Structures are given as structure tokens and as C-alpha cells.
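RETRY 2/3 - previous attempt timed out on the joint model. Re-submitting the same 499-residue input unchanged.
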Amino acid sequence: MHHSIEIEHLSFSYPDGHQALRDVSLHIAPCEKVALVGPNGAGKSTLILHLNGILTGKGDIRVCGLDVTEKNYGRVRAQVGMVFQTPDDQLFSPTVFDDVAFGPLYQGLPAQEVNARVDEALAAVHMNDYIRRVSHHLSVGEKKRIAIATVLSMKPEVLVLDEPTAGLDPRARRSFINLLKELPLTLLVSTHDMLLVEELFPRMVIMDEGKIVADGPTEQLMGDAALLEAHGLERQ
Amino acid sequence: MHVHFLDPYRPRSSPIHRLDGRVKFVLILAFILTAALLPAGAWAPYGALFGLILLVEFLSALGMGYVLKRSALAFPFVLAALPVIFTAKGSIVAHLPFGLVVSEVGLERFASIALKSWLSVQAAVVLAASTQFPDLLVAMRAVRLPRLLVMLFGLMWRYLFVFADEVMRLTRARSARSGQSDLPNVKTGGSVAWRAHVTGGMAGNLFLRAFERSDRIYMAMLARGYDGEVRTLPLPAIRRVHWLVFIAGLAILVLLLILGFLF
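RETRY 2/3 succeeded.
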């Protein structure tokens, strides 16, 4: 039985010399739901971009039992559904259908299967009626849901979200949280939304200055006011 | 994460970097104009121009390799001049298949154009690498380029980076979803036509977003009192040393031009 995500001693510097990750190790079991918190610039997004080889640092990463190396990028990217912070980046096709179909089409699946996957993915985010809509004209909340559907259509094992609730109004946020609750996947979510963390994630990982400074049960870490304050966090 | 490679400015501490941007801008333009105006085959003035630009490159501390590598940009322009070899009338040097003839005049003109473009591009490379863009904008204002045009250049420069970042994020999101099925014997990547379709969609998306962003920027400008009139602070005076460099530079270029026409 392999872990969903295994990261060993990962370090990474940007080309301008800024060291964004320092010796990060992290293990996440299948179907575990983990929140990644920390101040801006802590390295959360950088870490996430390593999970499917978009950035490559020093250290070992395995995802769903596959080494994240160039020859495995194809399989790894199909296993890790990555939802970016700005849904506009995720939605680059003219219509909702085209965007959700991109992953399966790229994989070379037959047309029937592609259509089935698109229907299934849109059903999972309750957006079936939007299939012929133009992505550009949707609201932020709708775009977020479609963005998730675009990776669900690849049937990933791990879902990675960057700041999923940023910019959502309370109702959109609520329905989005309910949606995340329904998804039976390994979940790694980078966020500043501490209420979301308390509600949805049994485990919490705190990053600061490129390092993991705490990793444990959310309830326990949330109770440690000194720890939260030391890393610019606040229980809401 | 940002795209860094776009900005050609290379910070150095050199006399060329310190030279007032306005002086540099006009001198480089004059250099390019001189190269363009010199008659074909005026080899001695060409040599002098070459020496001049080499000296500037040396003084600029940018590294000859850097400037020469960048000056390869001149190559496509040189290609455009290729037909001149065959079209100019004059004593014939060689006969080629398809009834093409190479004339001496044609060869000379071609070599002149190639050399001139190469020199001009080198000058432009030095200017861009040794002057920060805001200083170039100041220089454009100083030579009385319409303010609206200067502002457009400024905005273009500002948002080019935003745009490049956006392109980077889009392509990144695409590669994140470019996976491989676990079914055996399935070809990944889709057809060329499909990929072109996707890329076309991305281009359309970028266009729409750029269009909308320009609207938002305009509204932000209006919100801060923009009324269509571009107002700027008066320019600082140019120091006397820089004036001297300016006059000396212009004098040399004019002299070369006269020499080129006399001999």
C-alpha cells in the first residue's frame, strides 16, 4: 500500500536565488484530508507545484507510488488534479465542455468515454446545466466549480487546491465547502481560511519560510495560540 | 512567480549606463540614422561606425558576447535584402541557375545593407541594455514625442509583464492537465488539429482578458481623475558633461556622414 503523497527532503530555489523550500518532508495517506497553512510567501504554492513536476527541486517526491520524474509526468499529472488559485488560469478553452474535456482528450480517450467523463465530472460539482456555457462569462463561484470539474474528469487520486475559497461570497463559499466534503479523494488544500480548515480537515500542516514548522491534528494545533501567532496565523 | 527574461536592461556601473538617458537615446538614434544614410560601399565610414560602437560596447561593461549574441536579431532583416544581389544592374560576377545573375553592384549593396543593419541593431541593443525603460520614456518625452504615444508605450511595457505572467499561468495549467491514461496502447496528446484548436482558444481567452483589463485600467485611471490629458512633472536639466558628450557624438556622426558622401 503506497501513500498518496510522499515528499522526502525537498529543497528548491527560484532562478533569482530566493530559496522557497528548505528540506521539506511530508507524507499523506490515501483519502486523507490535509490543510496546508502559513503566511504569504511561506512556500505553499511552490510546494504544490512540485507535486506534478511543474517545478523540480532537490529531493524525492512520489505520488501514488510513482516517482515524479520526467518520464512519469504524464501518469503523475493524470493522478494529481491540480486546481489553481485563479480559475481564469484553469479555464483556457472557449466553452465549459472544452475545458472539462481537455484532460481526457489529451489522454487520447475515445469520444464516448470523454463525454461520459465530462458528464460525470460536471455532475460531481452540480454544474451539468453549464456544459455549453462560455467559461468567460461565469461568476467566480461557478468558475471555481468548473475548475474542479476540469481535473475530476481525469479521475485523479489526489486533489490539490490552492486557496480554493479566496474571493468567494459566503453562499458560494458554503456550497463550495459542501462540495469538497462530498469528494472521495485525497485532499491537499493550501488556504488562509482557518474556519475552512477547522471544519473540513482533521490534519493541518503549517509552513513558514520554506519549512514545515508543525504537522498534526488540526484540533491540537489550533489550540496552540502561541504557535499560530508565531507564524502569522489566527484562529477565526 | 513572474517571468523575468523579458526585461533587456542589465544593471552595470559603467559610464554608458550613467550617461543621461535623453543624450543616449538621441545619440543612438543619430547613429542608426547615420548608418542608414551612408551610401552603399562607403567602407571607411562603416569601419569607423563599427569602431565607435565597439568602443561603446566596451565602455558599457555589458560584455561583447552578450551584445553580439543579441545582435543576431539583425539576421532576418538581412535576409530581406537578399534579392538586391540579383536585381541590381551592373557588371556580372556569376551566373546562377534559373537565369539569375549576380552583379557586382548587387553584392556591394547587399553587403552594405547587412553591415548597416548589424551595426544599427548593436546600437539598439546597447541602448536597451544600458537604459532603464522609464528613462527611455523620459527621453521620448524630451524629444517631443506626443505624450499620449509615450504613455501608450509606458502602459504597454507595464502590462507586457502582466500578460507574460498570464501566458505562463495558462500554459502551466494546461501542462498540469496533460496527463497520460492508465489504459495501455492509448496515444496521448490528441491530434495536431485538436491541439491547435486548444491553443486558439487560449489565444482568444488572452485577447478577451487583455481587452477587459484595459477597461478596468481605464476605469481606475478615471477614478483617480484622468481626463484624457497626460500631465507630467517637468524634466530635470541635462548636466554640462552630458551636453558635451552629446555635441561631440553628434559632431563625429555628422563628420562620418560627410566623409561617406565625399569619398
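Chain A is about 40% helix and 25% strand. Closing ticket.
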